[in-house]
Amino acid sequence: MNSPITLDALKVLDAIERRNSFAAAADELFRVPSAISYTVNKLEEELAITLFDRSKRKAQLTPIGKMIVEQGRLILKATDDLTHMAKQSAEGWELELRICIDSILLFKPIYALIAEFQQQYPWINIRVTEEVFGGTWDALTAGRTDLVIGATGEAYNSDFILRPLGEIDFVFAVAKNHPLVQEPQPISSSKIKQYPSIVVSDSSRHLPARSAGLLNGQPRISVPSVDKKIEAHLLGLGVGFLPIHRIEEYLKAGELVALNVKKTESRKSELSMAWHKDNQGKALAWFVKRIQNMKLF
Amino acid sequence: MNSPITLDALKVLDAIERRNSFAAAADELFRVPSAISYTVNKLEEELAITLFDRSKRKAQLTPIGKMIVEQGRLILKATDDLTHMAKQSAEGWELELRICIDSILLFKPIYALIAEFQQQYPWINIRVTEEVFGGTWDALTAGRTDLVIGATGEAYNSDFILRPLGEIDFVFAVAKNHPLVQEPQPISSSKIKQYPSIVVSDSSRHLPARSAGLLNGQPRISVPSVDKKIEAHLLGLGVGFLPIHRIEEYLKAGELVALNVKKTESRKSELSMAWHKDNQGKALAWFVKRIQNMKLF
DNA sequence: CATTTAGTTCAAAAGGATTGAAGTAATGAA
DNA sequence: TTCATTACTTCAATCCTTTTGAACTAAATG
Fold it and tell me: Which segments of chain A does DSSP mark as H helices, in order?
């Protein structure tokens, strides 16, 4: 792989084509016409291909020459982009940003934000993962992610920066035809314990798993995400607390019913963004800044 | 747009990464280690970016360096491909080949052939058009196409080379519930004239239009392609001759019925490939050679 | 602590790129 | 037709970038 094509030659060809003249190209490139001639001749010789038809006074690109100019421009653009990418990276823009989103949140607005980011910084890879409860902290401490959106509770240590997103409201919700709907409210803990509770299992792999508002002694059904928990509630498989913002439509449509319960634990939960304090990445900062002004629940 | 990146520097980076050593890269590139060092230093200086971590004995690519190597390889590949393309073009391979197919033929085997060609010569653009009867000749004489597949009749002048593809059989076919099916065969011309005939209109733009086997005095319905003619026949809109190979399935399924008619004109038609005798293109030759061994009808 | 391995530095040399003057060839105006 | 102009080419001289090789530094290895 030893191509006789050089970026300099491509630049020269590009200039000649755009200005439609060797002399004008020489002028543009701050060279003397003979230098342009030399470069073109060398390329033609090494390729053993005629790029210009010189039978007329004005040198005219041959079809092959034209193709090389066109393709060459793409190559020049690519090297230019590469330079730009490298410069940006050196200035603190990540090559890749890993975002971990708690399954309690609506992903849609975040995806919209990512799309916007990609338009501005198309060379930065964004990798999104979904975790549940402690799983987000786990991903952060294990270095599997750069930014957690929707971290719950306190930081495990001072290596992380927390930025609150607000409190999320939970309600005790069951399917419309669930037996508990017929009970007088507030519903006692002992009544609730007669039905299986749907529990989103913590996706922590290393840190001690957190439990989220379990009413002890109840039969449990574990599901891997809040989406699945909502489905389970809708099917009447069990009962439990759900984030209001995720089930508003179901409550309005009457498919889920919010019930008053005696125990008040876990009715609210503080959500945050979190990232490692050493991470000075500009893409990270961009997302933190933009997400702060967003309503995610 | 004056990128400090050069193809030579990218080659050097590539070699270093692959061989995992400056010395080995120098060896591979028939240079002295200091020359490699020089090239890398110059690039780093001009980009103002550290590409190698030299704190250890073995220089280690930084993440940005790695990205540049990876992207750089794509650029090297592109210039290499460009060289290859140019060489091939100079050797007589077209930059673009325009193929004009008569609508009477099955396009599928031709598309399969084009797909195969594209795998071998991915940089050559293939442009397919569809024409009807004289339209193919028209496209050729007007220079709108390079190769006609399925040209009918004689060449208009000696500027073109004809290569016969064989004879195509036509049958007089009508829809299964058409009144003509009830008539005793062979069916007389006067009976036929009572029903509209479906005529594929010639797509010639400059040459005198040819007519294909019209039974004179009949009401006509003109359609733009053989596909549409078959549809019209199936719907019972009219009658006429159809190429057997295109309606075999409908005949087998009984949706169309082939009838015996008295007039025997236009029962067969000689089809050919045709191209301009000055066209020495290798892609053209490739297609001519391959199509000769194919069964297109 | 000596030895080996890996890359860097630097002055000297090589050689490719640039220059400018002279030349050629097509175009177009007088 | 002639002559000036435009457009590119040729070529020897010059410049300056790249390469070289010897000497050097610094990390790993045992």
Answer: 7-19, 22-28, 33-47, 63-90, 108-120, 134-141, 189-192, 226-234, 244-253, 282-292
Other Cβ atoms within 10 Å of A131 Cβ, number:
25
Type and span of the H or E element at B72 = helix B63-90
Shortest Cα distance, chain B CAs vs residue A92, angstroms: 11
Q: By percentage, how much of chain A surpasses pLDDT 90?
A: 33
What's the pLDDT at B247?
92
Say if residues A47 and A4 touch (Cβ distance below 8 Å): yes
User: Which residue in this structure is represented by tokens 């005095």?
Assistant: B217
Residue B216 has pLDDT above 60, yes or no: no
Burial of A260 (0-12, 13-18, 19+ CB in 10 A): exposed
Mutation for B interface: A6, A71, A73, A82, most B CBs within 10 A: A82
* Amino acid A275: pLDDT: 95
Size of interface A-B (CB pairs under 8 A): 94
Judge: A79–B80 Cβ closer than 8 Å, yes or no: no
State which nucleotides on strand C lie below 7 Å from a protein beta carbon: 5-10, 17-21, 25-27
A82 contacts B71? CB cut-off 8 A: yes
Q: What stretch(es) of chain A map to CATH 3.40.190.290?
A: 94-297
Query: What's the whole-number mean pLDDT along residues B135-153?
Result: 90
**A267 vs A171: CA distance, rounded Å:** 7
Task: Tell me where in chain B the CATH 1.10.10.10 domain(s) lie.
Answer: 7-90
Q: What angle do CA B163, B169, B173 make, to 5 degrees?
A: 145
Q: Which of B7, B87, B90 sits opposite A7 (nearest CB)?
A: B7
Substitution target in B2, B76, B79 with the highest count of A β-carbons within 10 Å is B79
Domain at B7-90: CATH architecture: Orthogonal Bundle (1.10)
Strand D, nucleotides covered by protein (CB < 7 Å): 6-11, 18-23, 26-28
> Does residue A146 carry a pLDDT above 70?
yes
| Strand D at less than 7 A from CB of B42 | yes
Q: Which CATH class is domain B94-297?
A: alpha beta
Length of chain B: 297
Q: Please state, in angstroms and rounded to a whole number, the distance separating the CA atoms of residues B23 and B16.
A: 8
| Torsion sign over Cα A140, A144, A148, A150 | negative
Which residue on chain A is closest to B50 by alpha carbon?
A90
B140: nearest Cα among B283, B276, B273, B278: B276
Structure confidence at residue B133 (pLDDT): 74
CA of residue B288 relative to chain centroid, distance:
12
